[in-house]
Design a protein that fits this description.
By secondary structure, the protein is an alpha/beta fold. It is 46% helix and 16% strand. The two termini are 34 Å apart.
Length: 307
Amino acid sequence: MEAIHITDVAPRDGLQNQSVHVPTQAKLKLIELLSNAGVSSVEATSFVSPKAVPQMADATELVQELSRVFENLRLSVLAPNLKGLERALAAGAKEIAVVLSATEMMNQKNINMSLDAAIAASEQTLHRARDHGLRRRAYIAVAFECPFEGATGLDRTMLLAKKMLEAGAQEVVIADTIGAAAPLDVKERMSALAEVVPVSQLAIHLHDTRGMAVANAWAALEAGIRRFDSSVGGIGGCPFAPGAAGNLATEDLVLMAGQCGFDTGIDLNLLLDAVDFAEGVLERPLGGRSSAWLRRRRARDTSASAS
C-alpha cells in the first residue's frame, strides 16, 4: 500500500483566526491527541507579531514545551521573515515555513509589501534557515485564485515555486488559499508544477469553501502528489474570504485515502478524539463531511464490542 504524508495544520492555520482564545495547554493537548492518532507531522504555531495574531502569542512557550515532550513528532512553525526566524531559532524550532503570496495585491493587502519585496524576504529567510540547518517549507499562497486579482496564472505559480526551491525550500506547498480550485485545475496545475519542482517535494494545501476539497485532494493524488496539508475537524478559514468553510478536514482526507488504497498511518477513531476535544475548546461543532458517519460508526462499534 502506497503511503501519503499528511501535515495537520490545525494548531497554526486552523487556530490563528479563531475568536475563542486557546490556551497553551489546550494546544499541547490537541497536538498530543493528533500524535496519538498517528499524525506524524504538525504545523504547530507562527512566529508573527502577537498584535497581528494574538492566538499565536505563546509561540515560544509552545515550541519549547513541544520539543521537550514530542521527540519523534515532526513540528514545523511559520517564520515569514528574518525576525520571525530569529524568534523560532531562539525557541528551538527545527523546521520553518515561509508564505509567499502569488499576486501583487495579496502581498500589499496582507503584509504591506510588493511581490518583489515579498520574494526577497522569503528567499532571505530560507537562506538563513538553511545556514542554521533547519528543515524548510515554502507556501505559495493564492496559487489558484486571488480575492483581489482573480485567477492566478499558471506561469506565475510555476515561477514562484521554482524560486522557492532554488532558495532552499525542501518542500513547496501549493495553497488554494480561498478554496476556489476545482479538480481539473488541481490535476493540470500540479502536473505542470512537477516539471519545475520534483514531485516528491511538492505538497498541496486545500480549503473547502466550495465543498470540493476532497475531490481536489483526489485530483492531486492522480497528479502524483503524496504530500498534503489538512486540519483536523476542518478547523480554519481564510480571513480574506468571508464565509470560507475552512481547511480540508484531516478525517475526510484519511478516509478517502484509505478507501482508495493509500496508507496514512492515522487511526480515524483516535482522530475523532482530537475533533471532539477541539469542539470543546472552540465551543462550536466541528468535523469534516465524513464526521457524522464516522461518529455513527464509532458508536456502533463501541456498542457491539460492549455487548
